Each structure stands twice: as structure tokens, then as C-alpha cells.
């Protein structure tokens, strides 16, 4: 049995997001707006099939994948690049490698208690985010 990521999650901390965005060449004005956001993750998981929605008042981003199956990711509305992405399990962590123009790009998700953790990597930068589970209605 792998970890269950299903649910709605609200961000409670966002460390080094600015440097991560700089590593992705996000322009100044967009970074200023993005830094003020409190994004929400909505995760729909069925076994190894995932839909991860990142929702904010400024932009939304959605990615769909199956663990172990490489796919072409277009980071539309973010840095607008194409990556060959692959998500795998590393024990109870969900690890994505985003192969493309940027070196060492990817992310890792895991859960501890009612918290969802996310580390976003690009080049030599790591952004650490923590989300808290929104209790089901
Ligand atoms: C996705 C943003 C900065 C552009 C807008 C900011 C809008 C809300 O890849 C991500 O998550 C994975 C793992 O959960 C699933 O896709 C992070 C948001 C990172 C990077 C780029 C700033 C413009 C933020 C969409």
C-alpha cells in the first residue's frame, strides 16, 4: 500500500520560492505577484494515477501522470518549457524528474500526519513548501 495523497491542501509555508522562480527565469513582475499567493493543491489519486492541481487567484496549473510512465510536460503559465517528466516512488515519497533545458529540475512530495510536503528543485535551488490538509466536508 502506497501513501494516499488524495485531498485538498492549503499552503502554510513556502521557503526559498523566490530563488526557485529566479532559477526558472521568471520575470520580476511575475515573481512579485507569485510571492503573494497562497496556492492550494488538489490531488486526485487512484492507485498510481495522479492529477495534481495547483490553484491560485493568479494562475492554475494541472499535471496528470501515472507513476513509472514518462510523459511530456508543458509548464504552461509557469515558465512555459517542455520537459520529459517521470514520477517514481522512493519508499513513500513521490519523486518527479523533469528532464529538459534546466539542470537538476524536479520535485518530491511526501506526507507526515496532516501535512503535505513539497520540495521543488531547479539547478542549485530548493524551494520547500508545506501544506495542511483541509478536512473533508
Ligand atoms: C507548480 C510555480 C513559478 C511561475 C505563477 C505562479 C503560480 C500557482 O510543479 C509544481 O507542482 C508539482 C508538484 O505538486 C505539480 O505540478 C509547482 C507551481 C510552481 C513556479 C513559475 C510563476 C507564476 C503559482 C500555479
Automatic annotation (TrEMBL):
Protein keywords: Transport
Example GO molecular function: lipid binding
Keyword Transport: yes
Gene3D superfamilies, A to Z: 2.40.128.20
Domain Cytosolic fatty-acid binding proteins, residue spans: 7-24
CDD domains on file: CRBP
SUPFAM superfamilies cross-referenced by the UniProt entry: Lipocalins
UniProt record similarity statement: Belongs to the calycin superfamily. Fatty-acid binding protein (FABP) family.
Protein name: Cytosolic fatty-acid binding proteins domain-containing protein
Originating organism: Chiloscyllium punctatum
